[in-house]
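User: Can you help me understand a structure? I only have the sequence.
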Amino acid sequence: MSLRSIPADMDAGKVAAIDAMLDRIADEHRVFLPLAVESGSRAWGFASPDSDYDCRFVYVRRVIDHITPWPVRDVIELPLEGDLDANGWDLRKALQLLLKGNAVIVEWLCSPVVYRGQAWFRDAFLEFARRAASREAICRHYLHLGERQRRVYFGDESSVPQKKVFYALRPAAALRWLRMRPTEAVAPMHFPTLMAECDPPAELREQVRDLMDRKAVTHELGATPLSRPVARFIDSEFEIARSAFESVSADPPEEMMSEAQRFYRMVVERLELEAGGAPDASRHAESP
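Assistant: Let's start by predicting it. Here is the structure, written out as C-alpha cells:
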C-alpha cells in the first residue's frame, strides 16, 4: 500500500514542486524512495506562516550499485531553494545512526506528513526501530539537542527567538515522556500530542498553548520573552536527564547489528523485486 498524508492547509503548489523534485531524485540518482516525509516545525505541529518546507527521505540503492569496490556517498543533499529544504539518507546510514542512538530517523518514521512511501517499509522499519533503539542513547540525543539550544540562544531571556523556545521545549518534553514510560524508546513526534501525554504542569500547559497560538500567526524569526514556567520545565527535565543519562554509553548488541543487516537485505531484495529486478543478486549486497 502506498503512503500519502498531506494536510489540507499545505500549499498545493509547494507540494507539487516537492513531488516533482522527488521524481527527479529517484530518476537522476537511480534510487528507490520508500519514504519521503516532512520534518521540522510543519510536522512537529508548531509551524509559522513562513516556516520552511523540510522534506526528508530515505533512499535505497539498486542491487547493481552495491557491486563496486568504491565507497559511495550516503546522503543526497539539494541546494536550498526559497523555503524548500530537502535532503535524504541512504538506508544504511539511517540504520547505523539509529543503532548509535540518533532519534532523527525515528522521527521521520513517525512524521504525520508523508509525501510518498510504502507502508510495508515504514511499518517494518518502525517496528525494528522500537526494538533496536537504545532509550538511554535516545535520551542522550534529546538532552544534547535541547541543551545546545538553551546554551546558544537563551542568553538574553527577555528576547528569545520563538522557534528556539520550541526547539528546547520539544526535547525537554520528549525526555519527560520517556521518563514516564520506562519501557519505551520512541516518543511522539507531534508536539501537541507529546505535550498532552507528558502531563505537564497546568501553568506550563497554558503558556505553551499561548506560545503556539502566537507562533502560528507571526514570522519564523519572531522573538518572545522566556517565561519562568517554560524555563523551569526545560531546566528541570535537562537536569534530571543529565544525572541519569550523561555518562551512559554502549555499543549496539551484536544481535541487533545482525538483525539490521537482515533488515537491510530484505528491503533491498523486496524493492528490487517490486521493480521487476532479480532479488537473488542482492546476495552480493554489502551490510549496513
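Now, to help you interpret it: The two ends are 26 Å apart (CA to CA). The chain has a mean pLDDT of 91. Let me know which part you'd like to focus on.
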